[in-house]
Design goal:
It is globular and about 60 Å long. It has two domains: 2-83, no CATH class; 93-276, Aminopeptidase, CATH 3.40.630. It has nine helices and eleven strands. The protein is an alpha+beta fold. Helix content is 29%, strand content 22%. The model is unreliable at 82-88 (pLDDT under 50).
C-alpha cells in the first residue's frame, strides 16, 4: 500500500509492505530513519517505509519482491522464487582473502545502508549487545580485523569490481557461537565456521554467494580445517517466503548442494550443517 501524499497522521510519502517474522524488528532497530511500524497492520509484522529520506531503491525492490512472496498464493510465490535465484556460480567470479589493502573494497561491499553497513560482521565475534554500540565502532573493529592472520573473510570480484563478502574463521573465534546454549556442545576442534554473506545490490541471485561458499571451504581447508560449519536458513519451511534481510547466513539448499550435512536444528527452520574437508 502506498500513500504519496501521506495518510492519517503520517504526513510524508510512504509504503506499507508485508514482512516475514523478525524483519520488522531488525530494520526498525537498524534504520529508524527509513523504516517504521505502521498503524493497523504493524502488529502483524508489516513494515512502513519512508520515501522522502532517500531510500535505497534497489533494496526497496528486494523488499517489495519479498513482500509479494509473503502474501501471494504458494504457487505464484514459488514461481517468483524459481526465477530469481541462481543455481550455479558465475564463472567470472573471483574469490580472494581480504587484506588491509583491500579495505576500500570491503567498505564498497558493505555499503552505507542496510544491516551490513551497521553490523560489519561483528555479531558473531561479540557477545551480548556490544555490537549495537554504533556502526562506526563496528566498522573500526572489522577494519582492524582484516589486518590479522588468518584474515576474517573473503571478497568476491567480477573483474575489478568487489561484489560480495563472506565471514569465515575458526569456530572458537566466534564467542557468540561457542557460548550459545543451542550450539556450545558441538565440538570446535578443527572446525571453521562460515557465518555471514553480503552481496551487493545489483549482483544478487547471480551465484555470488555460491562462489563465496566454494572459496570459503577451499580457504578453510588450506588453513588446516577438518570441517566447515554453518547455520543457514531452511527456506522450504518458510513456504519459500524468506526475505533478503534474513538470508545473510545463507540458505540450506545452497549448503546442501555443496555437500554439507545437517547435524542439528536450533529452530525448525535453522539447521546447523557441517562438511568434512579432510
Amino acid at each position: 500500500m502506498a500513500w504519496l501524499d501521506g495518510h492519517h497522521d503520517i504526513d510524508y510519502p510512504h509504503l506499507w509492505i508485508a514482512a516475514a517474522p523478525g524483519v520488522q524488528e531488525v530494520l526498525l532497530s537498524s534504520r529508524p530513519d527509513t523504516f517504521f511500524r505502521p498503524p493497523y497492520v504493524g502488529h502483524r509484522g508489516w513494515l512502513g517505509v519512508r520515501l522522502d529520506t532517500g531510500p535505497d531503491w534497489d533494496e526497496l525492490a528486494d523488499l517489495l519482491a519479498d513482500a509479494y512472496r509473503q502474501v501471494a498464493p504458494k504457487r505464484l510465490a514459488a514461481q517468483v522464487a524459481s526465477t530469481d535465484r541462481s543455481t550455479a556460480p558465475d564463472d567470472g567470479i573471483r574469490v580472494v582473502p581480504v587484506s588491509r589493502e583491500r579495505w576500500p573494497d570491503v567498505e564498497a561491499v558493505f555499503g552505507t545502508r542496510g544491516d551490513p553497513s551497521w553490523c560489519f560482521c561483528q555479531f558473531c565475534v561479540t557477545t551480548g549487545r556490544s555490537y549495537e554500540e554504533s556502526a562506526e565502532h563496528n566498522r573500526e573493529a572489522l577494519c582492524a580485523q582484516v589486518a590479522e592472520q588468518p584474515p576474517p573473510g573473503l571478497l568476491a570480484y567480477k573483474g575489478s569490481e568487489p561484489v560480495g563478502w563472506v565471514q569465515v574463521g575458526p569456530r572458537e573465534s566466534f564467542p557468540r557461537i561457542t557460548t550459545s546454549p543451542t550450539t556450545a556442545a558441538l565440538d570446535s576442534d578443527g572446525v571453521w565456521r562460515c557465518t555471514c554473506f553480503v552481496v551487493r545490490v545489483g549482483h544478487r541471485r547471480q551465484g555470488v554467494a555460491r562462489a563465496l561458499l566454494t572459496g570459503a571451504v577451499d580457504f578453510a581447508r588450506e588453513q588446516g580445517a577438518t570441517q566447515v560449519e554453518a547455520h543457514p536458513v531452511d527456506v522450504a519451511l518458510r513456504d519459500g517466503k524468506a526475505p533478503s534481510p534474513t538470508l545473510y547466513h545463507g540458505t540450506l539448499s545452497m549448503f546442501a548442494d555443496a555437500g554439507f550435512a545437517e547435524v542439528l536444528r536450533t529452530r525448525p527452520d535453522r539447521p546447523v550443517v557441517r562438511l568434512n574437508v579432510r
